[in-house]
What does this fold into?
Amino acid sequence: MRVFTPLEIAKHATNKYLAILVAAKHARVMNEFPRERSLREEKLTTKALRALSNGDIDYHVVPKRRPE
It folds into this structure.
């Protein structure tokens, strides 16, 4: 199992908390696509964290609307 440090993850995000949210959202998106199942397959969250730490994920933060 690969362990990602907070500093490693935060390199490509504003902070480590945002990085985890981005990786979780990316893992949910990857879960929607069909994939081959095998015993040695890496978990989707690990794949998402690896992609984020490599800088492969581009994202932007959309501010919440204030209720009028």
